[in-house]
Amino acid sequence: MPAPFGLNRAIADLRPYAFTQLRARQDELAAQGVRLINFGVGDPEDETPQFIRDALVASISPASRYPTAAGLPALRQAIASWLGRRFSVTVDPERHVLPANGAKEALYNLTSLVLDPPGTPGRRDLVAVPELAYQVYGDSVILHHGEVFPLPLGPDWLPDLDAITPEIGRRLAILWLNSPHNPTGSVAPVAHYRRALDLAHHYGFL
Fold first, then answer.
1. Do the Cβ atoms of 71 and 99 come closer than 8 Å?
2. Rounded distance, CA 163 to CA 159, Å?
3. Residue 45, φ and ψ in degrees, nearest 5
4. What are phi and psi of 133, to 5 degrees?
């Protein structure tokens, strides 16, 4: 008799995906004739301008090929140039830019690169995630057999960096921050990021 097929046991620790639950509830209410105002995933309502659609069609080559792992050089250069114009920073497209197929791919790949495998001596297995945040931050940690440290939010809806004690800091592999904060919209001041950077340098987390 063949052995039963097994999945990653960490899957059992995942929560149902929030947007899947919201969509099911949305469909249920719509079937009842309830008029909904959707504050969900944020799909665009406006049409994509025709010149953009035309440019996409014109760019399709007769024969499709696999892209390089690092992405098109022209795309990486365009991203680096935009970052320079928008944020007045110098970005090397060869070292600092890596296109990804959406946020999930980037989050899961980065987590796999940074978290140590189970059983590694002195393993950094902890990832700090704001208590109110994009669900995939935590899911990527669970699937890589790490531990999520829920970072409490202060009255200004910003993560409380004082919660990163020496004990936590020594185990921390990643601190996830985003501004404006999702979903509250609070904007972190520069001092908040400087404090986070000081902690990252002190303890050696990303």
1. yes
2. 9
3. -100, -25
4. -160, 175
CA distance 19 to 40: 7
Task: Identify whether the C-beta of residue 8 lies closer than 8 Å to the C-beta of residue 143.
Answer: yes
How many residues can be counted in the chain?
206
| Strands of the sheet with 172-175, listed across from one edge | 147-151, 126-130, 172-175
The secondary structure element, H or E, covering residue 173 is: strand 172-175
Residue 201 contacts residue 164 (beta carbons within 8 Å): no
DSSP conformation class of 175: E
Predicted confidence (pLDDT) per residue in 163-189, tens digit? 999 999 999 999 999 889 888 889 999
At 28 the pLDDT is 93
Residue 21 DSSP one-character state: H
What tokens appear for 146 in the block? 């790490």
Is there a contact between 183 and 132 (Cβ–Cβ < 8 Å)? yes
- Per-residue pLDDT at 3 exceeds 80: no
pLDDT for residue 39 is more than 80: no
